[in-house]
Design brief:
By secondary structure, this protein is α/β, with parallel strands linked by helices. The protein is built from seven helices and eleven strands. The protein has helices spanning 18-23, 42-46, 62-71, 89-98, 175-189, 199-216, 224-247; strands spanning 5-11, 30-35, 52-56, 77-82, 85-87, 106-116, 119-120, 129-136, 141-142, 151-152, 158-171. Helix 5 (175-189) packs parallel to helix 7 and helix 6 packs antiparallel against helix 7 (224-247).
């Protein structure tokens, strides 16, 4: 049944992790890779796999871009992945057993295990990370969120959980935090829905982001990894609102 499932991945400079992801998907009938401007070896890696359908185009924000990539798939059943995620064999086996009885009003929610420099993070807001990743595109699809996009589910949607997980290499070098903060804060700052706050309020919001991650979400239990995540979250909040404020001066 995995031959009737299309995986959909959007990429940009994902050479460090893409091969691992595509290796894990060799049993699928199709893998759509939608690239938006890679300058590394991402395209060359994608072309090595017989089941990959490679497309190139613009980036419209995460939600709209993933919706577009989903439209390029041959199959109606879609597995959405990031280029640094790989499903375990156990989860794919569970999925293959579930698909023959699946209905279009059902979606699959999978546990994502988030890794930072070789070790899974259990707290800091990174643990217990359940995400809808398998859906029938005639009934469900991504929302229009520019960042932190998700599958829009309905009141009648039945959410299914299967054995296994996604292993997510969220951070393989600390510098990635800086790149993500700059990229994501810039995207969110361009949204007219984001409020403009005085500088003092922005500082307080950033401080609370650290407090929430490190203490309320027990980041301190993750050691130095929890500290790094807490500081990164604080910086993300600061730059998101500060970029929005400066844009409106």
């Amino acid at each position: 049944m995995l031959s009737e499932l299309s995986a959909v991945i959007i990429t940009r400079n994902a050479a460090a992790t893409l091969a691992r992801t595509l290796d894990s998907l060799e049993a699928l009938g199709e893998v759509v890779v939608y690239d938006n401007g890679s300058t590394d070896e991402t395209l060359e890696i994608a072309r090595r796999y017989a089941n990959v359908s490679l497309h190139q185009g613009e980036f419209f924000g995460f939600g709209p871009t993933k919706r577009h990539a989903v439209s390029l798939a041959r199959n109606d059943w879609v597995l959405s992945l990031d280029a640094d995620e790989a499903p375990t064999i156990r989860w794919l086996e569970s999925l293959a057993g579930w698909l023959p009885t699946a209905g279009p009003d059902q979606v699959v929610e999978v546990l994502r295990e988030n890794w930072l420099l070789g070790k899974p993070v259990r707290h800091s807001g990174w643990g217990n990370d359940w995400l809808v990743r398998v859906f029938h595109r005639r009934r469900h699809n991504f929302n229009d969120a520019m960042v932190h996009e998700s599958i829009a589910v309905k009141r009648t949607t039945q959410v299914v959980r299967l054995d296994g997980c996604l292993e997510h290499l969220a951070v393989t070098e600390l510098g990635q935090f800086l790149d993500k903060i700059n990229n994501y804060s810039g995207i969110r700052a361009r949204s007219d829905k984001l409020r403009v706050y005085p500088s003092g309020v922005i500082v307080l919001k950033a401080a609370f982001a650290f407090f929430r991650t490190y203490f309320l979400q027990r980041g301190f239990l993750d050691g130095w990894r929890g500290l790094v995540i807490s500081v990164a979250n604080s910086n993300g909040v600061f730059w998101k609102y500060m970029k929005r404020r400066v844009r409106d001066i």
